[in-house]
Design brief:
The complex is a heterodimer of chains A (114) and B (109).
Chain A lengths: L4 E3 L2 E4 L5 E6 L6 E8 L3 E9 L2 E4 L8 E5 L5 E5 L8 E8 L8 E2 L3 E5 L1
Chain B lengths: L2 E3 L4 E5 L4 E3 L2 E3 L4 E8 L6 E5 L10 E2 L10 E3 L8 E9 L6 E2 L3 E6 L1
Parallel strand pairs in B: 2-11
Antiparallel strand pairs in B: 1-4, 3-8, 5-6, 5-9, 7-8, 9-10, 9-11
The chains are: A mainly beta (114), B mainly beta (109).
Chain lengths: 114, 109
């Protein structure tokens, strides 16, 4: 079946603009995770959803970052007033349930802020 | 604090040589430990987890609670093992993964 998909695959934006990144999890997966992969910082957790609620937002780096999930499926990560340090690959992952051992990752969205 | 440390950014070995990718962790409790792998131009994927105690693609990893380590080992490296390897932990109840910085393994012919 289809895996986790993310769009766009690449996004170039100017500093100060807002961006939206989309994640489509595997059908039926209730848990959804956002991570960020950047040079020097490795892979960092941002936020995760169980259904439509976000029990853990502890990784969001600032209030410019927000995320929502609707219908227990698609999730959108929004970055407002982008800064150059936001440049990274944003990865989405999903798992059947929160305590399922395997997280399935999407291909990522490469964000470049100029 | 929860932390995963992979001391080597790059590990280069010749084909057929043994390989060990180091991973140390700090966690106040009993975490679950994982190794994830990312081959060139592919997605990050699970390689193995400590609970299963299985060998995947010839790789094994043993959880050493005394040394708080979870090193990944393979007795004879192959060129197709070249990839980025991430050690990760999470609490038993599930949720987020905490990753190490990653080690790039390069296996030369």
């Amino acid at each position: 079946g289809a895996g986790v998909s993310q769009s766009p695959s690449n996004k170039v934006t100017e500093k100060g603009k807002d961006v939206e990144l989309r994640c489509d999890p595997i059908s039926g997966h209730t848990a959804l995770y956002w991570y960020r992969q950047s040079l020097g910082q490795g892979l960092e957790f941002l936020i995760y959803f169980q259904g439509n609620s976000a029990p853990d937002k502890s990784g969001l780096p600032s209030d410019r970052f927000s995320a929502e999930r609707t219908g227990g499926s698609v999730s959108t990560l929004t970055i407002q007033r982008t800064q150059q340090e936001d440049s990274a690959v944003y990865l989405c992952a999903s798992s059947l349930m929160t305590d399922s051992y395997e997280q399935y990752f999407g291909p990522g969205t490469r964000l470049t802020v100029t | 604090a929860q932390r995963v440390t992979q001391p080597e950014k790059l590990l280069s070995v010749f084909k057929g040589a043994p390989v060990e990718l180091k991973c140390n962790y700090s966690y106040s409790g009993s975490p679950e430990l994982f190794w994830y792998v990312q081959y060139s131009r592919q997605r990050l994927q699970l390689l193995l987890r400590h609970i299963s105690r299985e060998s995947i693609k010839g790789f094994t990893a043993d959880l050493n609670k005394g040394e708080t380590s979870f090193h990944l080992k393979k007795p004879f490296a192959q060129e197709e093992d070249s990839a980025m390897y991430y050690c990760a932990l999470r609490r038993h109840q599930g949720g987020k993964l905490i990753f190490g910085q990653g080690t790039e393994l390069s296996v030369k012919p």
